[in-house]
Amino acid sequence: MSQIAGEPGTQDFVEVRLPAEGAYLSVLRTATAGLAARLDFTLDEIEDLRIAVDEACAILLRQAVPGSILSCVFRLVGDALRVTVSAPTTDGRAPERDTFAWTVLSALAGEVDSTVADDRTVSISLHKKRGAGPGQP
Description:
Strand order of the largest sheet: 1-2-3-4-6-5
Radius of gyration: 15 Å
Shape: globular
Largest sheet: 6 strands, antiparallel
CATH class: Alpha Beta
């Protein structure tokens, strides 16, 4: 893991870049599980985050430029994991927030957001905080 230079409150991060094809998503699911486990997420929280990352990627792959690269950045911040998945898209449209897929993302990941860059790269960010342990508020 490396640290992002120049960012306030420098944090650990991992970046994975792979072909924007569904066949490679198992790599991201594995990375998600490993990093969430490092933060002591529960098994349920890990599985929720794995599904959320998979769903975010599926949304992006539907509009990704053929032959492009899907980028996934994991930032470990305290007891939380922020995952940002990005891909260049053919139309530069942000995902619609009134869809079933977006509802699933929000339910599984906690905070969800999307952005579109000037070059039509669409990003979806998920922010999952580790829950309180048993018997804690």
